[in-house]
Amino acid sequence: MNEQALSLKDLVKDFDGKRAVDNISFTVRRGDILGLLGPNGAGKTTTIRMVMNIIAPDAGHIEILGKNFSEKVKDRIGYLPEERGLYRKLQVMDTLLFMGELKGMKVAAIKERGRLLLKQFQLDGYEEKKVEELSKGMAQKLQFIITILHNPELLILDEPFSGLDPLNIELIKDIILSSKREGTTIIYSTHLMEYAEKTVDSLVMIDKGRKVLDGTLAEIKAEYGQKFVKIQYEGDARFVGALPYVKSWRDSGREMEVELADLSKREQLLRDLLEKVTVNGFLLSEPSLQNIFIRKVQEGERA
Amino acid sequence: MKKIFAVIKKEYKAIVKKKSFIIMTILTPVLMGGMMFVPVLLMKVGRTEKKIAVADFAGGYYQALTAKPTTRQEPGKPGFDLEGSMRKPRESEVAGLISFRPVKLNGRDAAAVVREYEQKVLKKEIDGLLLIPADVKSGRQVSYYATSISDFATNSFIASTLRTVISQQLLLEKQIDPAVVLEATRDVLVDTFKVKKEGTTKSSSGMDYIMSLFMMIILFGVLIGYGQMIMRGVLEEKSSRISELLISSAKSTHLFYGKVLGIGLAGLTQVALWILLSIILVSRFSGAVDASILSFLTPEIGLYFVVFFILGFFIYAIPYAIVGAAVNTDQEAQQFSTAIVWMMLIPYFIGFSATQNPNTTLALVASLIPIFSPILMFMRITASTPPLWQIVTSIALCSLTIWGLAWLGAKIFRVGMLMYGKKPTLGEILRWVRYK
Question: Pairing relation of β-strands B50-56 and B98-102?
Fold first, then answer.
């Protein structure tokens, strides 16, 4: 079996002369959770739509579950689009039946798994209700049930957390993790990096259509993690930016995050600080994905 | 292929389970039946007795008005009243419901009588005053005063009765026997027989014309109704953002054909139920239905109705589906669908003349144009029996057009379904067709 669930190579897409996706390549290992991170408008949804063969790339190649995209492969993928919707007049169970059959499932199998999932999402008893009678949160749950109804090998979720309340976010996170335990490969996009941080195995960061970073979470944290120091202080600390061993720094006034060129310089930094300002706290820290992202984007702009 | 059936099933069930579908299915034949019987019933029930005062300055006419209209109903209508012959049955009904009473003149002039009776009319003591002047024979003018003067049946009853009386008086003065004139001017009736392959049947040409139009209106209504249903269905998928989910699950062509076929089958079900219900209604009340309706509704006509319904359905449904996929809002859809309705109105208007002259060049050529055929060729079939080659040609041309439309529609559907936001231009839509 192919190791890769998904592989993108040099993907390009232009819209009206504007480049929405610019030479993006990455791979996703089977069984992994990959986070596709980036701010709004970075090109996440366009990339996903190309993966789902909804729009055609202008250049590049996509291999999904070891093959080129085909009608048959659709049945093995669970896709949650960014733009969501259901037939308002259709009953809940009828919705599941229709969507399940579109994924090539048998009626009996749909009913069995459908009931199980409805129960799991606390929607049991709503089988006969029309979709328009459901609350917004319930409809979102139903949408998610449809995505995983056919036990897909690959889940592609575009902004799965957007518009959800905290309870449902937890629920979706649980489902993502339990799907992973069953061997499902999951790709999801989000602009909320703090969620990604807690679940993904690997990640791809994109900005303005370009990939700025990818790798496993462990690799990325290892690369950045050990060189960061968080300092709480009082006084004028602007001199820090000019210190030769400081690679980058972000000052928030009473707290700053400093990236050192070399971790061994941390004591030097502390000494230099103590001369000029009052230090209230000094802590080696792991950078947040948010900070890594901002740093990468700034680097890219400088280059 | 299994997925196309899933779509057909879903679309079919969604329509057939609707309350409006069930209501329309039952109500339409009942209403249609009603349209045939109710006017006659209303005519009988809705009339109240009228009291009309007659101021007869000429003398002798009051008696003529109150005489029982016995001789007037003989077959072979009297020539005195040629133009009135269509109204005869109505007038006879009217006659029984009008009671005339004489006005005592006592040497008063017309103006005084009118003044007095204006008050009585306003107080509703009587319904009207009929003033017959002394020179009615030469002047041929009478006056009728009433609060309601729109009762044509009453007016024409008065006019034709007076005319008959005057004519008879004139003939007698010239010493001609009115019976001779009556006989000499008797009308000629034309019995119409429709020659068909299955045999010749006696049928009334008026009824054929009416039935022909009637079937066309049903066809027209159903095609528009189901076309718009498809349009709204596609638009709903677009506006509720289901389309992306659908396209990530099945082929867009399957979604498109499944939708059109599913809704088409629902339409066919409705038509079939209508035919079935009509048969039940007709067999139940066959006594009350004109025999020429029964001779018109042959199994052959029924078969052609179904064939041309199916052809017409696809020819109009696919453009409707394309509109639904191409636009974003109901208002935009309405604009386009109005254009489609206009397109359908063309054969409808040609159809009015085609039922009377089904074999003119215009009717022949127009009935072979695929977008007109479903309505026009069907009309020509009901009105006469066009040569088989013409029917076959029109069916073949329609099928070809449908094939082309389906190809085009699937392409536009694929792209249009995922285009949100701005209204596409025609050029953009044509570009969609070339997308792979």
Answer: parallel
